[in-house]
Amino acid sequence: MTGAVIVTGKSAGVADDSSFDFTTNVGSLELNTPILTASGCAAAGRELDNYFDITAIGGIVTKSIMLAPRSGRATPRMAETPSGMLNSIGLQGPGVESFIENDLAWLQQRGARTIVSIAGGSADEFGKVAAKLRVAGGFDAIEVNISCPNVEDRGQVFACNAEAAAQVIQTVRRNSDNRIPIFAKLSPDVTDIVEIAASVAQAGANGVSVINTLLGMVIDTNSMRPALAGVTGGLSGPAIRPVAVRCIWQIRSALPDLPIIGMGGVRSGHDALEMVLAGANAVSVGTSIFNDPSAPMRIQNELEQELRSRGFSKFSQAVSYAHRDVDHTFQIAASTDVANHADEDWDFISE
Predict the structure, then answer these.
(1) Among 204, 206, 220, which residue's Cα sits nearest to residue 86?
(2) Is a pLDDT exceeding 70 seen at residue 327?
């Protein structure tokens, strides 16, 4: 938990000095900034590099890679929804060998921090992908997309079953370099996300990525048929952010030492701050990239300003700050944003 407190003294919302420490540790993974791309929204970052320097953000989380090339689902496979979108891409990709030869090699040459997202239809397939990555090297962490269906169990999503989720993580951990941190990407479509988080942590995950998309569906009222060829798809965008914040909060409350990468509907630094206050050690930006390819860099700059305006001098002070004990010192600030009390003598300092 943070050691920042509010005390009377200097002008509101101004850090003590002009420097700002934006570094964060997500388990053993140290990042220069807490902003990442979200898997599936920016391929391997090559296109985004035309809009901003991808080495200036915390890192690139790649599109989920599978063992063999995959064409994905039939079209149409994307549909807009109020405050979001549905996708039914179906994990289209070139396969792990092509990924290593082309995308991973480019990321390594470019000097970007890289988290490789992997997927599979069985625990064994996840293990084989991890083994090939172990031989290749040249990346910083693995994100295990256990939110895809288990083809050996009638399409049951791994992340919806604590035992199945743990089995995948154990297999990936066995086939990975022990120095490489592993993050399990969790689904919100469960009764108790804390149970799944605890299960993967016990199985060897170094942290969790929260959340993946929610299962949704759209009916085209002109054709009077499902809008997606695959019928259902993953809902992303601003509509799911409150769900993501709730999941982050619940996991942080139950598992205070488990590193969390938050994601889901982040469009601004203010949105990212909400996840950080709930307990996220880093934040991934996804769907907003489709509208604004420079979103990760913009959101990173906005997040720094949001933190500075509240008096934080380093990012780590804000992580889990909403979980702090409320006493008389905080009661005045509890009902409104500290930054709005410009006429009062409030400031943040470290204990």
Answers:
(1) 220
(2) no
pLDDT for 121-170, tens place per residue? Answer: 999 999 999 999 999 999 999 999 998 765 566 567 999 999 999 999 99
One-letter amino acid of 255 = L
Distance CA 25, CA 45 (A): 22
- Top-ranked range on mean pLDDT: pick from 13-17, 40-44, 109-113: 109-113
The Cα–Cα gap between 165 and 195 comes to 11
Contacts of 313 (CB under 8 A, 6+ apart): 15, 16, 17, 19, 20, 21, 348, 350
The 8 Å CB, 24+ separation contacts for 146-155 are 146/184, 146/185, 146/186, 146/187, 146/200, 147/185, 147/186, 147/187, 147/212, 147/213, 148/64, 148/91, 148/119, 148/120, 148/121, 149/121, 150/121, 150/122, 151/121, 151/122, 152/121, 152/122
Domains in the chain: ranges and CATH = 4-350 (3.20.20.70)
- What is the set of active-site residues? 148
- What are the residue ranges of helices labelled H in the chain? 96-99, 105-110, 123-136, 162-174, 193-203, 241-254, 269-278, 288-291, 295-309, 331-334
CA distance 331 to 351: 18
Report how far apart, in Å, the C-alpha atoms of 53 and of each of 107, 110, 191, 285, 290 are.
Answer: 12, 10, 40, 15, 17
Q: Is the pLDDT of residue 212 over 90?
A: yes
pLDDT of residue 5: 35
Distance CA 251, CA 241 (A): 15
Token readout for 123 is 């625990």
Contact indicator for 216, 233 with CB cutoff of 8 Å: yes
Closest Cα to residue 64, out of 87, 42, 47, 86?
42
The label of the residue with tokens 């069985």 reads 122
Residue 243: is its pLDDT beyond 90? yes
Angle at 232 between CA 225 and CA 239, to 5 degrees: 110
